[in-house]
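Thread: 4DW complex, take 2
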Amino acid sequence: MTRKRVAVLISGRGTNLQALLDAQGPFCPYEIVVVVSNNAGVAGLDRAREAGVEAVAIEHRAFGKDREAFERALDAFLRDRNVELVALAGFMRVLTSYFVGAWAGKLINIHPSLLPSFPGLDTYARALASGAKLAGCSVHWVTEGVDTGPIIGQAAVPVMPGDTPDALAARTLEAEHLLYPACLSLVCGGAPLSQGPAPILVNAFL
Ligand code: 4DW
Ligand code: GAR
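Output below.
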C-alpha cells in the first residue's frame, strides 16, 4: 500500500498529533512525515521526535505581520518534503487564501464542537450555556473562512448534569482522539469521503 505523506501542523501540546501518530500501523493509509509548529519549544514537537518523526518550528513571529511570507516559507518546506496532505491539529494561526488555495482539497482541521454550532473559541462554555445535551467535535476541510469548510466526520459526546467547561473539554478531547485518526484514514484511503462535500458522519465509537 502506498501511504499518503501527511504533515501535521501544531501550535502546542499536540495530543491530537499523538493520537494520529499512535494510530499508524501496517494498514494505516497515511504516514506522518513531518510535524511543523509555529511556536518553538512546544510539547507537540517533542512528541513527534519521540515517535521518530521530523519536527520543525517555523515561527510566524519571524515574519512580523506578513502572514503570506510565513505561509510561503511553510508551503516551500512542505513541498520540499513531498507532503500530499496537511492536517491541522491545534494549529492556531489563521491561514490566508494564499495557503488555503495552494492546498485546496488537501487541508483538514479538527474543531472541538459539532459544527456548524460554536465555531471559534470558547466552544465548551458556549455549548454549556446553550443548554444543548449533545456536544462533540468535527473534522472538516479547511477553507478561507474559519471553521466553515465541509464536514468530513463528527463524534458526539453527552453533556452531563453539573458539567463544567473543563470537564466537557476533557470528554470532548477523548472523542477527538478517536475521530481524527478515523477521518484522516478515510480521507487518505480515497472514496467516498474525498469525493464530495456532503457531510458524512463517522461514528468513532464503533
Ligand atoms: C482557528 C481559527 C482561528 C484562529 C485560530 C485557529 C481554527 C483552525 C484554523 C487554523 N487556521 C485556519 C483555520 C481555519 O479554519 N481556516 C483557515 N485557517 N483559513 C485565530 O483566530 N488565530 C489568531 C491567532 C492566535 C494565536 O496566535 O494565538 C490569528 O490571528 O491567526
Ligand atoms: C483541540 O481540542 C482542538 O480541537 C482545538 O485545539 C485543541 C488542540 O489540542 N482546536 C481548535 O480549537 C481549532 N479551532 P492538542 O494540541 O492537544 O491536540
